[in-house]
Specification:
The protein is an alpha/beta fold and about 375 residues long. It has helices spanning about 35, 40-45, 65-70, 75-85, 95-105, 130-135, 155-160, 170-180, 200-210, 220-230, 245-250, 290-300, 320-330, 340-350, 365-375; strands spanning about 15, 25, 30, 50-55, 90, 105-110, 140-145, 165, 190-195, 215, 255-260, 260-265, 270-275, 285, 305-310, 335-340, 360.
Amino acid sequence: MKFIEDINIDNKKVILRLDLNVTINDNKIEDDTKIKESLKTINYILDHKCHVLIMSHLGKIKTKEDEEKNSLRIVGDSLSDLLNKKVNFIPFTRGKELEESFINNEITLMENTRFEDLDSKKESSCDEELAAYWASLGDIFVNDAFGTTHRRHASNYGIAKHLESAYGYLIQKEIIGLNPIINEINRPLTIIMGGAKVDDKIALIKKIIVKTDYLIVGGGIANTFLCAQGYNVGKSLYSKEYVDEIKEIIKQYKDKIIIPIDVVVNPDNTTIKNITDVNDNDNICDVGPKTINLYNQVLSKSHTMFLNGAVGIYEKDDCSTGTKALLEVISNKDIVKIAGGGDALASINKFQYENRFNYLSTGGGATLSYIANGYLECFEDKL
């Protein structure tokens, strides 16, 4: 594994992959944390008299309308302000204008890498021709996009197959910060998984359950676990196609898995119910106080914990009690406390618990994948 200081980048053309996937509303960036986290690596590259071509994704691109609302132009303006340097934004992902800008300008920001996904998914399928083209533009590749390290895309895994490569300072920071849940675990380890759906996490759950001592599930993910246990979840979101797989996981690891025992139902007229009392017309939106007490008992037996996601619809006041109560429980435990992922960090910031954790990771799925696999997939065969 190489980091940016381990390789010679002097006077080179450096391709830098960042995670600038920020939330933009009304042409304003809601939170520029990810942009600020990139500055140390950018400045190191510039201090070594390099030209740098910055690549990032923003949102998902499935339609022409998605392109219009997910351009990186606004991000480029913000980056320019923060660096106090001109960032030359190129509204294309290939072509002569991009190539000449990289040669002639100190900093170039290329348009959203996922614009290449619109017709043929060349970015997300790690198209070899696209990866080779992007790699041909530079001498060195630096990956500092921790949030996409679990994805083998053309702009990370693909480019790394063609160029001398290294991690940037943010990924180095993440590796150090996450070490207590990767290599130096003080057990028992408890992982808390929330979020909307189990669909894109089932493979990770199968790996994580082997590595953790307890797996607490909440949010929409818990609904599929509840269905697998034979409970009625009414109109709640759950993943019907994965119920049987979850049933087998619970059967094999029943002593590790903690599911809600009471819930808050119906977001617009909330009621607390035991899980056995949920009916066909109910819609689960949060966990109840008995469940928080159960979570508390498990965390009291733990020495290390990782939180990913929220256990309810924390954006709605009437459905945020469970998430807030869980954060209060966690904050009062004298254990190693780490969190990661968009909803986890957003809820922590909303309820002002950010100073009560040992480390807050910029990655959600990337961090879960790192826990599950023990390596960063984007460079698995390269470093």
